[in-house]
Amino acid sequence: MSDKTIFIFDAVEGDIVSEDVHTPDGNILVKKDTVLDYSIISNISGNHILEIKVYDRESEQSFEDSDIENNENEKYFDKIRKSTQYKQFKQSYDENIIDIKEGLNDVVTNNIPIDTDKLIEGTQQILSDNKNSLQIFDMLHSMRQFDDLTYVHCVNVALIASIIGKWLGYGEDDIKILIISGILHDIGKLMIPNEILTKPGKLSSDEFKIMKQHVNLGYEKLKNQNIDMRVKEACLLHHEKCDGTGYPFGLKSKDIPTVAKIIAVADVYDAMTAARVYRGALCPFEVIKIMYNDAFTKFDPAYSLPFLKNVASSYIHNDVRLSDGRIGKVILINDNALHLPVVQCGDEFVDLSRSHGLNVSAII
Residue 355 — φ and ψ, nearest 5°? Predict the structure, then answer.
């Protein structure tokens, strides 16, 4: 069987790897002939590997023809893109991201003191134009690819972090800290060579070391600015993991500040979607599954669990397709298996947490 090279964000569940995938330091990450699932695709993307080789085969079209003919089965996010709410969200987003981009560039290239109020203003405008916090996640999932990914990612993380703060009952001042932390958390990437940020192949070991320096570069740019220390800490420490596997210091949970922990959750959630790992039939329950697996280890469950539970609960009463092809409606979220809800299929109630191998494959 012939093979082909694809970008990782074009990979789909069911693709088969035609040669070993190596990490930037040369270790085997995924072996040849592995069948990809969303967790493996996310892991490859998370290691900054942008191209892989897969066998060139005809894609499965089990439901494609019926989806084209039956508007009720139109992809969930295609429906959102056609909605008035989405069009309004995108207009507000596009208008405000220009100002945020200019503000970040002024800090990096012109060493202008950070005007936190001005940077926050655009994000708050997007939030005020869209009162339903849960709908914002659907809007972000539905956004098409942008050229200026670092700026877009920073705004998305600011939006997500502010919503997490709202769900945790934070006051207005603390939510502002989360917003500015999200906007500034990746400012160091604006000082990473563009050829590394946009490299179409995997990063070399030396390139990966340079990429990881974005947290230090960002902190150096912020450390003497007249801004809250929590913002500076979030910039430096948002890649730390509670189990000690993160960088730059390998800190464990007790030594990682709260704001940095929240930004880490928002950062990973947006990276999974903005990197287009789920391009095509994006299923939020797959995102929830991957993050839930790390909820008690890499993340602090005090912040990751409320976040994931709220996102999962937003799909109660939505129609979904199960992996065996049945169509049903989500009626209950399982607290101990957030990605495996109870689904009503006709007169039958299917508890996916008790049905081995069965899961939600798409929201429709």
Answer: -110, 100
